[in-house]
Structures are given as C-alpha cells and as structure tokens.
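Notes to self after the call with IL:
- keep both proteins in one doc
- input above output, always
- annotate only the second one for now

Protein 1:
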Amino acid sequence: LTMKTTENYEQLLARFTKRIEQIKAGEQSDKTVEQLHYLRGCKETIEYLMTGQLPNDGNHDGMKHHRPRHGNLDALD
C-alpha cells in the first residue's frame, strides 16, 4: 500500500480504521481474517510513525517508547 501524495498519517489511520470496521461487520472467512491482520499491522505502523508508541500486543515488552529515527521508510533499505 502506498501513501497517496494527498494523504497524511491521520487520513491513513482513518482509512485503515474504517476498512477494519467494514470487514469486522461482515461475515468472517480465512481471507477476511488475513485482511484484518494485515490492516491492523498497517494501522499499528501508522500509529508508531505518528507517536513513537509501540503496539501493546505483548511482543514489545521491555522496549521503551521512542520517536522513530527515520521519517522516510525508504531510508531503511
């Protein structure tokens, strides 16, 4: 998923949240469960980029919250 030039983090977060709610409201299948996992990951990434807060999912215990060092994810390549 690529960010449109007119989208900021808040708009992306709203889009992912809206899509998650749409999928949750429908009938669940293996495909929709997979889509939900993907979208939740996208949403957590945007939240991290916005705030530096790591997800509270049990996988990040002991890590301090921090500001992301890279504003441009392409710099990580």
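Protein 2 (the one to annotate):
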Amino acid sequence: MRGNVYISIPASDKDNALPSGITRYDWNTYTYDDDGAIDTTTLVHPTWAEYGEKYKADFGAPVSVTKDDVDYIVYELELSWLDSEISALVALGAGVSAPSYTLYNASEARQFIIDNS
C-alpha cells in the first residue's frame, strides 16, 4: 500500500496523538479472562510513534531528519479529502513554521528528506 500524503512533525511531538479526526488507524486491544474469553476491549487512538511502528509494513518506517538543528520525523499516510482527514492535518500546521506539521506530496517529501539527511 502507498500513502497519498506525507507529513513532517517535530520529533519531540512523536508521543502526541494523531488528530482526533483521523480514526482509520485506530485499533482495539483486548484483555482475556481465565477462560480465554474477551474480558475488555480498549480502543487505541495512536500517537505518531505508535502509528509509525504499527503501519511501517504498509508505508515504510518513518524517516528522521534534522533541519536547522531541530529533529523531524516524516510519516507517510493514506488519508481522505472527502472525510476531512487531510484538513485535520492542515489544521495541525496552522500558525507554525515549516517544516513543523508540513504536508508534502511524494516528490516534495523525498526532496525534504534528501536535503536534510
């Protein structure tokens, strides 16, 4: 699978959750009772780090780069314009300077990574 959007986030924000408007990457975790039946189900809305780890088989491992002495992580995602998921990412970048929460297409992401590796 290939994504349709890339985003660079400050590495210091990797433990922040994905925007609440992006739920396609949520998953359930389960605990079981002594008989092996499901005891509880917990919905996990992932952090960027959890997302990167769980979906690296689909999108490749996140890429770490440094620009102007600040570390960033570039993530690849497949998101919908129709469901406003792209808008949720655009909102993250409102009022912050690039490359914090900057969206890229594939060519732009590749060049950002090359320029800052």
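Annotation: The radius of gyration is 16 Å. The longest strand covers residues 70-77.
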